[in-house]
Amino acid sequence: MSNNWNEFQTKLENCLCPPGNGVFTVNTAKERKEALHQKLYNETAQDKVNALWQTSLNALPASKHKAVILGISSDCGGGILRGANWGPLLLRTTLVEQQAQTKAFDMGDIRIIPHLLHDKYLNEGTIENCQKALYQKEDKNNQSDYPVSPLSITEDICDGFYANLPDKGIFGIGGDHSISYPLTKSYLKSKRDRGVRTAIIHFDAHTDLLVERLGIDLCFGSWCTHILEYLPQPSHLIQIGIRSSGKPKSHWENTFGIKQHWAHEIQEQGAQKIVDGIIAQLKRDEVDELYVSFDIDALDDKYASATGTPEPDGMTPDESLLILKALSEQFPITGADMMEIAPFTDSSLKGQSSSEVTLKEGAKISAFLINAMNK
């Protein structure tokens, strides 16, 4: 990690790529990428897009926007129905087309090798080969020390981001929910070092509180477990919309010390009562700032079926926005992410594709979070 801006900008130019390019392809989705680049840069030629994107990084420190978009096009940490790697490209396009009033600085996408998850699972030989592929280093004696796996690169970039730009925040677009591990870890470490008390507001149908899944400790079902140590206290992880769990609410709260508000409670008591209770808890705990991690499957599957694990009996977009609005009126939202939109999964709705509906609702919530971060 470097707190020297010139060194960090060089790292960004190596480890990131222009928005929408995080999925490595030859021709697949070429037209979609070009359409996004035309909107963002008024250009489609890849070499010119690369040059414009790199030049734009010079303006990041002085940008008036506090919200900085980072795309992480990886679904290697998922494992049910894949396809969330396309989320950053298509959600950005939907934001531009449907939420044009929402502005943020777009830092680009993490460069992804789609077979990898975290560097700790790799041997030295694999890391060297992947460094050659990502960073074009042919001489073994001149290898970059940059990481190569999506979670490792994301954490390294986020650590440097908060060291250099502590008054800005990252809005992460995934990708599967394992990506929230490095996003929140870097955020929480930075805030802790500055004496800021934080809480994570986690919207999801699932608890993501496994210790490991099939022998892998960092994945979409376990990331929450491994960020608890970086929170001021475990109860500062507040989960909303839970409904698909093999264990009762009491198990998760008693085992981990976190706080949950299940989907049926929102339906029975109303979203306003639920958020009033959350605000009261946060004020008692003297929380200063919030990070919001939003898994799109927190929404009922009629609104969010283009995802790896759609679930019925979930929240409505209006309920989610009511809760977010009430929270943002009481606490600064200084970091956030939108995860698990898988745009090319099969349609389950008639007349309008599941992708269109899911992207539309995901863009609404993303726009609200970006605007809240910019306040």
UniProtKB/TrEMBL annotation:
Pfam families: Arginase. The keyword Ligase does not apply. Transmembrane segments: none annotated. Keywords: Hydrolase, Metal-binding. InterPro entries: Ureohydrolase (IPR006035), Ureohydrolase_dom_sf (IPR023696). Gene3D superfamilies: Ureohydrolase domain (3.40.800.10). One of its GO terms (biological process) is putrescine biosynthetic process from arginine, via agmatine. GO terms for molecular function: agmatinase activity; metal ion binding. Signal peptide: none annotated. Belongs to the arginase family. This is Agmatinase. It comes from Pseudoalteromonas denitrificans DSM 6059.
